[in-house]
Write a structure and sequence with these properties.
The complex is a heterotrimer of chains A (313), B (314) and C (456). By secondary structure, chain A is mainly alpha-helical. Chain A is built from 15 helices and no strands. Chain A folds into 2 domains: 32-88; 99-310, MetI-like (MetI-like fold). In chain B, strands 1-2 form a two-stranded antiparallel ribbon. Chain B starts with a helix and ends in a 5-residue tail after the last helix. The chains are: A mainly alpha (313), B mainly alpha (314), C alpha/beta (456).
Chain lengths: 313, 314, 456
């Protein structure tokens, strides 16, 4: 792009030299004169104020859910506000033990599926992405097109054929139909995501490594993977959340209540024809959100570990 | 596709490397297929079969309970005369054309604000991402009603200033709007991807620009936007695909019926209703392939257009 | 070849000058051939149909049956208790429960049937039973050893169709109007006598409540969210939802009249505004206007009373539908099977399956576990035996069902194939009418057209 030509072109050989610099906190606006910093401070305050207001609007519904989980069942839908008159912990204790198994049982089931899926997506998608982004091979365009195509078909129409397939293998009521596809990179979303990230990594870096005699496995493991930590973190977080929340797959393949994952178990509180234990439902929804939230809190620090912070280039 | 064409021409830009590369190309084939192996196995064993099966079913009358019967192009011809399908297309296109730019705009804006070495960044990022954690939870439907119902929060606030608001989710004129809002509300995922992409932009570009006296705005246009363009492109392509397939939100908020008066009857929701509700899986499969052609066309246009604005450093 | 359109679109871009000289077409062909071959193999594998369920007699001679139902956690608990009672009596049969919420249940069941992997015992609904039975998915239970002599005749007939007895009623329901006395009291209006009231009374009383209540409270909930209330209306006018030969039993003008009265109710503010009506449609039972004290009267099935009372936090009263004449005999109610017990036609163990259904239907122990969870017990002996154990709310329902026995109209025809779509059509056009996007006549015409094509 011509716009960038005014900038000094970085050469691959400089990689790693500024490693120390990268470790310092990453601030783009260097503090200037006193006047500048005062206006910057006001600007900052305004920014924070706006962010807090937007944030409050964003999470109000969630706060309502938390508050509702602490209310008696019959009050839940009469109170749109956040005021709590009493603290009702019984939703949590009742909800935890309302189903055949304690709720933790379903969380463990979910955790198994989630961990398998994350591992699968990280390994298989990054490998495929490396091939698509960096390697020349015959049939590349066709395969790339097919990969995109697999994202485009609405999943409802492949459910039945896929179910037939897995029931033929005898995998119904096991976690395999939920994990194995991830091991085989069928989540093309992540392949495409990683392709885009790898293509953002300067090619000089792997060419330098190639000149040093590194083969593809080595370039992949030593050069590309460390540089795409943000993409891997994104994949991990998304896979965690999407798999944790996946209802349909778990509904179809896991028929035995012993095998239920969290979203399916949560639906067991809902009875459209009779009474739904909303308090328990909300309470257990909050409980099931906790691991996801924790993973996000922990995982987000890796989102910012990119080229920028490792200081390469 | 053209991006790949571009990729292949770009890699060959540098004249002196050609010989080296040609040699490398020979080796690449084997390496590439090894790297692609899991994906290829998955494609052949899990993905392609069911896809072809659904293609076959689109030419049949299939009620799930009995074996499919070949009917040729009947399903596709029926689609021409199906007024509800046309309505669902209109709903879906509105959703895509309004919802996607809106959501990506908000996501990019917030990502840019958050990226600027802000204090409490992890806190804000978590807050903004929280709604996306909820996913397709049943609780979302309840939450949305509490806010946008006739006696919901929005109308209570409006009542304070003397305005009697409509039932946002139950009025056919505003129901789609409220679902688009729900979509925008969950801007967390593209925001995260933007943030991760922003972190990939080498700091030294900005430092160099500052030395040259570039303003913040100039830096945005000259550095951030071009450098982030592959990620913007990714988000755009995937959000368009995802929005065309949008299902869960409308399903949850409308209780699965796309109401009121079909005003939130998305294409996939209608497809699902046909397939599973009315046991017309042949027709549903035909609809799916029709949608695939639409999405494919949009994606192709995206890739062609990307030649003019997406910058790859390779 | 699904990959072809994309593949072709991609191909032109492949023309890069420095490519190795392998002929492009050949390469493309090879790739497509590979994909085609594998796809064909998978297709062949999947198309030949399932190899049957996984259940089989295990080494110790135990038979395992899969039993699927929809419902919440409370139903799961009582049903598991019934299963335990059965297993205690039949140590050689093991019942594996599979349960979930309503909408997921039907998606899953359709998928399982398609894959030849259906559960042995299936809880069925009136809406879908014809769908499944006419397509051969359900077992004719009359050929197996199930005692049906103690069942109410009407309830038993509901499970009969062209493929025999494919469902046995699990409970009896009636369409009712429930009244929330608290709302009546607050408005200072007396609850009308349901043995003599007419639709005019219904309109007048509910308009009065609305007028005398705080803003946002209405005398009655709107009808039009399902086909049951339409069914009652039609029956009172000498028509019916369906005819015995599986056609629609009414004309566009009949349903238009029904909507015209609803509009009249709406104009007099007897029922909530259009927006509120649509919201109420999607609302779960606990959030309904009746439960939250926002409606004085509402249309519900009789077996929903206990749950509604719990949600409302007070007693509710069951009323008969109003009639045109003010005579309870002309209300034309009927006994509806709340759910059915059905069996998969592909079950490997039809005898054991029948034995379990027989247990659920006729054994007092099953009755003691299930009580009134699925409606009033259709077996009169079991009903009497468990009467002392029923909760107060359940007793109310049982008494109501017994009380209307002499007033019932003739049993309605079973819903034909495709009837599952009717409710959605009714709902959709009701909101078209209430939002005044269509006149009642237009809506009637369009709705009837759609219904006809749905059940044809």
């Amino acid at each position: 792009m011509t716009k960038l030509q005014t900038l000094p072109a970085a050469s691959g050989s400089s990689a790693g030299k500024n490693g120390k610099e990268g470790k310092s906190p990453r601030r783009r606006e260097s503090p200037g004169s006193l006047a500048y910093s005062r206006s910057a401070r006001i600007k900052g305050l305004v920014k924070h104020a706006i962010l807090i207001i937007v944030g409050a609007v964003m999470i109000y519904p969630l706060l309502w859910m938390v508050v509702s989980s602490l209310r008696p069942n019959d009050l839940i839908f009469r109170e749109p506000g956040l005021w709590l008159e009493s603290l009702e912990m019984s939703n949590y204790t009742d909800g935890w033990s309302a189903l055949t198994h304690p709720f933790g049982h379903y969380m463990i089931n979910s955790a198994i599926v989630v961990l398998g899926s994350i591992l699968g997506n990280l390994v298989s998608c990054s490998m495929a992405a490396y091939a698509f982004a960096r390697l020349q091979f015959s049939g590349k365009k066709i395969f790339f097109g097919i990969m995109l195509l697999t994202i485009m078909l609405p999943f409802h129409v492949v459910i039945v054929p896929q179910y037939i397939l897995f029931s033929q293998i005898g995998w119904v009521n096991t976690f395999w139909p939920l994990i194995v596809p991830k091991l085989l990179a069928t989540d093309a979303f992540f392949v495409f995501l990683m392709v885009q990230f790898i293509r953002g990594i300067p090619k000089d870096l792997d060419e330098a490594a190639r000149i040093d005699g590194a083969g593809h496995p080595r370039i992949f493991l030593r050069v590309i993977l460390p540089l795409m930590v943000p993409a891997l973190a994104t994949t991990t977080i998304f896979t965690f959340i999407w798999t944790w929340n996946d209802f349909f797959g778990a509904l179809i393949y896991l028929t035995d209540p012993d095998m239920f994952t969290v979203p399916v178990a949560l639906r067991a509180f809902v009875d459209s024809q009779s009474a739904t234990s909303w308090g328990s439902l909300f309470a257990m929804s909050i409980v099931s959100l906790l691991p996801v939230f924790l993973v996000f809190l922990f995982g987000q620090r890796f989102l910012i570990k990119g080229i920028a912070t490792t200081g390469i280039k | 596709m053209s991006a790949i064409g571009e990729l292949s021409t770009m890699t060959r830009r540098k004249g002196p490397m050609t010989k080296e590369e040609k040699k490398a190309n020979g080796r690449d084939n084997k390496a590439a297929y090894i790297f692609l192996l899991p994906w290829l196995i998955g494609l052949v064993a899990i993905t392609v079969g069911p896809m072809l099966m659904s293609l076959y079913l689109s030419f049949t009358d299939y009620n799930l309970l009995q074996p499919p019967e070949w009917v040729g192009l009947d399903n596709f011809i029926r689609m021409f005369g199906d007024a509800r399908l046309h309505n669902s297309l209109r709903v879906t296109f509105t959703y895509v054309l309004v919802g996607v730019p809106l959501q990506l705009g908000v996501a990019l804006l917030i990502a840019l604000v958050l990226d600027k070495g802000l204090r409490g960044l992890p806190f804000y990022r978590s807050i903004f991402y929280l709604p996306s954690l909820l996913g397709g939870s049943v609780a979302v439907a309840i939450l949305w009603k509490q806010i946008f119902g006739t006696t919901g929060l929005v109308n209570q606030v409006l009542a304070m200033v003397g305005i009697e608001g409509p039932g946002w989710i139950s009025d056919p004129n505003t129901a789609l709007g409220s679902i688009i809002l729900l979509h925008v509300w969950t801007f967390g995922s593209p925001m995260i991807i933007f943030l991760a992409g922003l972190r990939q932009i080498p700091v030294m570009y900005y430092e160099a620009a500052k030395v040259d006296g570039a303003t913040t705005l100039q830096q945005f246009w000259r550095i951030t936007l071009p450098m982030l363009s592959p990620i913007i492109f990714f988000n755009l392509v995937l959000q368009i695909i995802g929005s065309f397939q949008s299902f869960t939100q409308a399903f949850i908020v409308s209780g699965g019926n796309g109401g009121p008066s079909d005003s939130t009857m998305f294409f996939t929701l209608y497809l699902y209703q046909k397939g599973f509700g009315q046991f017309d899986m042949g027709y549903a499969s035909a609809m799916a392939w029709f949608l695939l052609v639409i999405i494919g066309a949009f994606t192709a246009i995206n890739f062609i257009a990307s030649k003019y604005w997406v910058f790859y450093d390779d | 070849m699904p990959v072809k359109p994309k593949g072709e679109a991609v191909a032109p871009a492949a023309a890069s000058p420095s490519r190795p000289s392998t002929p492009k077409t050949k390469r493309k062909l090879r790739a497509s051939a590979l994909v085609a071959a594998t796809a064909a193999a998978v297709l062949a594998l999947t198309a030949c149909g399932g190899g049957g369920g996984s259940e089989a007699k295990s080494a110790d001679g135990k038979v395992e049956l899969r039993f699927a139902w929809w419902g919440g956690d409370k139903r799961a608990q009582v049903t598991q208790a019934a299963i335990a009672a059965f297993e205690a009596e039949n140590p050689n049969i093991k019942i594996k429960p599979e349960y979930g919420d309503w909408s997921g249940y039907w998606d899953k069941l359709a998928t399982q049937v398609a894959a030849n992997d259906a559960p042995d015992i299936i809880q069925m609904d009136e809406k879908y039973i014809t769908e499944y039975s006419t397509r051969g998915a359900l077992l004719d239970l009359s050929k197996y050893d199930i005692d049906t002599s103690k069942l109410d005749a009407a309830a038993l007939d509901a499970g009969k169709g062209e493929k025999g007895l494919t469902g046995i009623a699990a409970g009896i329901n009636a369409a009712t109007i429930l009244a929330n006395p608290a709302v009546f009291q607050a408005a200072g209006v007396a609850i009308p006598d349901d043995k003599t009231w007419t639709w005019e009374d219904f309109e007048r009383v509910s308009a009065e409540i609305t007028a005398k209540s705080p803003k946002g409270t209405y005398g009655a909930a709107a009808y039009g969210t399902d086909e049951a209330s339409l069914g009652v209306w039609l029956r009172q006018n000498g028509k019916s939802l369906y005819t015995q030969d599986g056609k629609l039993g009414f004309e566009p003008s009949d349903i238009a009249e029904w909507w015209a009265f609803l509009k009249q109710l709406s104009e007099k503010k007897s029922v909530p505004s259009a927006s509120e009506v649509v919201e109420a449609e999607a609302a779960p039972l606990d959030q309904s206007g009746l439960a939250t004290g926002k409606n004085g009267l509402a249309f519900w099935w009789s077996n929903q009373l206990p749950a509604l009372e719990k949600a409302a936090g007070g007693e509710l009263q069951i009323l008969r539908f109003p009639s045109k004449t003010g005579k309870a005999d002309d209300a034309k109610l009927w006994y509806k099977a709340s759910q059915f017990w059905s069996a998969s036609s592909r079950t490997k163990h039809p005898e054991e399956t029948a034995k379990f259904i027989d247990f659920l239907t006729n054994n007092v122990k099953a009755g003691e576990a299930l009580l009134a969870d699925r409606g009033v017990y259709p077996n009169s002996e079991v009903r009497d035996a468990i009467a002392p154990k029923l909760a107060k709310a359940d007793v109310k329902v049982v008494d109501f069902i017994a009380g209307i026995k002499e007033e019932l109209g003739e049993a309605p025809a079973a819903p034909p194939k495709g009837a599952g779509a009717i409710q959605e059509i009714v709902k959709r056009y009701t909101s078209e009418v209430l939002f005044e996007r269509l006149s009642t006549e237009e809506a009637g015409k369009k709705a009837v057209d759609e219904m006809k094509s749905a059940i044809s």
